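Weekly structure sync, notes
Attendees: PL (lead), two postdocs, one rotation student
Agenda item 3: pending single-chain targets
PL asked that the sequence for the first pending target be pasted directly into the notes so everyone works from the same version. It is reproduced below exactly as submitted, 307 residues in total.
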Amino acid sequence: MTSMAAVGTFVPADRVPIESYADAFDLSPMQVRVFRRYHKIGSAAWSEQPLTGLLRLALADLALTPELAARVRYVLYARSFPVVVPYPHNPLHEVLAEAGLGHAQAFAIGQQACASGLMAIDLAGRLLAADGDDGLAVVLAGEKAFTGETRFVPETSMFGEGAAACLVSATGGRDRLLSYVARLRGEFDGDQEEVASEFQRIYHDALGEAVTAAVAEAGIALEDIAVILPHNVNTIAWQRTCKRIGFPLERVLLDHVADFGHVFCADAFINHRTAIERGLLRPGDRYVIAAAGAGRGATFSAMVFEH
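Predicted structure, written out during the meeting:
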């Protein structure tokens, strides 16, 4: 059974306040206040490190021993955006060579935008199960907010810089994957105003349905879930989603929304680290990781794990 064997993260100490975006994105003082008071987003993580530096630091925090590194067969780089650096740079292979993982088959996954991290965990487990031995995989996540589109989503969120690395095994006793649900909505492909409006209208119901479907597929009830580890888009989105499915908002880990911003596909792993550090997960607890992605259509995803 697919398991998360270890998680490494890097979140820089520097922050970019929402007020600094006012001129670049033509935000009125009222819109800035709405972000802080309504969406509960005040800043986003930022680093002088290039993308290679972010990924390198996350891998270093994973603390792979030489023996574990030798067992890594696959590295899956989960991305929110199709392009993360100018051509012809390839930060993934550069970082892996430095980390002693140049032997692994490495490729990027970005078809489900910000939900691609969950898809990467599932695919890593499937690849390892097909091999049928003691091989391992690494899922990497993290991007630079280097364009307007990758810095800010109007009326929704700020993107933060950081990175995460997750060691995946086909078997394991902790953080075992019990179920995975991904709802693909191709009708939301495009930037037309009516498409965006409809996406916002169905967002909370669709995300809530993915969560409840994953819980049902795991053979448990929603009240059996100890905590939801969300994507850090904004607080109001999770308030509405929880109201629709009848889940207590206080059991959604929203610690980093206001401070880190939406750290692309790395949110799941950063929130997992925080849940462990805060003692929110005890052995045997079941928890949900959820994410939504938009760009080339929309994806609403949820995974249930047992700690």
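Discussion points:
- Residues 176-306 form a domain with the Peroxisomal Thiolase; Chain A, domain 1 fold (CATH 3.40.47.10).
- The longest helix spans residues 193-217.
Action: rotation student to compare against the earlier draft before next sync.
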